[in-house]
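Backbone-to-sequence.
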């Protein structure tokens, strides 16, 4: 059973409905891509923070927000949204703790999604 504070069950249901006759193959593919891609995006966040690249940081936070929302990772999407807004308005000065929070939320989302696929 999914923790609805981490993964929105309605988003998972919506993904399943996109290809209802494939025995969950589409859902597994989308979740697999998300689990494989997100660590790279998190690394991009850290790299752009270290280099002071606000534009890349903001784009990466936006990407994480969108992909997380697509798979129902609502907690992570929320943190990424805050990162995106904060970096747009104030730069990178106060985002380090939220980047760590983003990584933590991805770990929780990943565990929930892997459990769903098991």
């Amino acid at each position: 059973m999914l923790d609805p504070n981490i993964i929105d069950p309605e988003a998972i249901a919506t993904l399943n409905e996109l290809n209802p006759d494939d025995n969950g193959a589409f859902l597994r593919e989308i979740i697999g891509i998300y689990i494989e891609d997100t660590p790279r995006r998190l690394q991009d966040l850290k790299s752009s923070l270290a280099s002071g690249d606000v534009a890349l940081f903001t784009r990466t936070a936006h990407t994480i927000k969108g992909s997380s929302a697509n798979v129902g990772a609502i907690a992570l999407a929320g943190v990424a949204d805050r990162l995106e807004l904060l970096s747009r308005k104030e730069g990178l000065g106060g985002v380090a703790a939220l980047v760590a929070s983003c990584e933590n939320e991805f770990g929780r989302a990943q565990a929930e999604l892997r459990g769903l696929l098991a």
